[in-house]
Amino acid sequence: MDKQTQLNDVIQGLRSAIAELREVLIASTDGLAIAHSHGASDPNRVAAMAAATLGVGKRISTTLDLGEMRETTVKSANGQAFLYSIGSKGVLVLIAQADANVGLINLEARDAAAKLDEIL
Amino acid sequence: MAIYGSLSDLPAPEILNLLASRTGVLRVEAAGPARWRRYELHLDRDYLTSLLVDDRALNDVMLVRDAFRTLVDLQEGAFTFENGSVPQAAAVMRLPVKQLVLSTATAIDELAQYRSRFPHPEIVFQLEEPVTEHLPGDLEMFYVRAEPHLLGGCSAAHLAEVMQLSVEEVQLQFYKLRSAGRLVPVRSYAREAREAARSGHGRRPPLLARLRESLVRLGRGQR
Amino acid sequence: MKPLKLVIAGPVAAGKTTFVRTLSETAVVDTDEVATEAIGKSSTTVAMDFGTLDLDGVPLQLFGTPGQDRFDFMWEILSEGALGMVLLVHGQRPADFPRARDILEFITSRIPVPFVIGVTHQDLEPVWRPDEVADFFGVEHHQAVGLNATRADSAAAVLIRLLALIEEQEGANAQAF
After folding, report:
1. pTM of the model
2. Which of A35, B119, B200, B212 has the fewest CB atoms within 10 Å distance of its CB?
3. How far is CA A34 from the centre of its chain?
4. 67-86 in C: which are within 8 Å (CB) of A?
């Protein structure tokens, strides 16, 4: 199976497992969209913002001696964005409704991130 | 001193505007499909004193204007500008460069070619002063309706809404006027500074002087 | 005292990260990642480069921005409340000038920030000189200055010019009214 198909499979897997997900996206660490679900947002913009956010998070981790940075969340009034490090290769972004099940999302997403680390 | 580059990155209308008041020789080497291979323009302050195509001097104003038009259409090629006095012996005319630049810029018809050059549609542009020269058909019609808005400063996006035109169409006309040096971006700092001055709120001159002196010492290796 | 903020913007590979590193007194906090595109170097800034400088007891914060368009939201974020901006362009890359001009106009049309254009690589030939770059950008000659981003004295000179510009602008406004 080619890489792109594998990536899309992981994305599909997440969407089926979590009903409250709006969008899923995989970005490179320098802000380019590698794969994404068919959501409403511009994948290029989301990819750049995710890379920038993760980049800042990594620096916080390093500067405060917290070890390897793994994830960060943006919680807002009408939704949430969950960002997970894919090793040092990229970012997995999940955008969900405000009342989504965080526990389930983290469970599935961390698993997915590990899988993606092997694919990329 | 070096003004040089590739026409695919810096199109002719923009280069000519930049050279408008300089003295020297502009050499263009066309690549790809082109009527002539080499252009040589002698610029003497605000005037074009000689134009050679493939080493042949053009004496007729109509031929010169026509050659200028082909220069505008060139999509590939390299250019260099050699600063310095022009050979007086070769001078055969005195055509105002700014006029040529205006007619060159307004000869741009191809939306496709320039589309990638358009700046962000939300950037506010302004006319430094009303254009009094004659403008060709399309641009004239646009200009007449746009002038009142442009004198006060307006973005392409806003003007497109007001004039019921596509944003791209407005951007193309903006590009022509900008290349002719008539449209300039309005910087919000300048706007706000004027307003601040009007209301009497200044900033911190003594602090700035202190910072400046500190930087000077830093530059000298002292702290 | 509240730190003063300076933002360093410009196209990819103009020398922004280098400039911040040259001036910063503290270790620069950078957000460099491996570049997956061919940009002439192996890494690229994805969020910002942050450095600090203490001038006579006044803390200055230097924020270098990423160069690619896709990070334009960072240009706005980082320019908010900035005392001034340095727009850096590589003097041997005229192909990047239109991009740089777009960045400048995008930022300055939204956020009131005085600026200076810094033209790098003046020690090489052929190279665009500051006044030539100023003409291309349509700014006054004293708003563009040449520099070597690796030298502290050269980088400091750019900031000096920026501060002089700010002072002059405010002096002019004070006099006019």
Report:
1. 0.83
2. B200
3. 11
4. 68, 70-71, 73-74
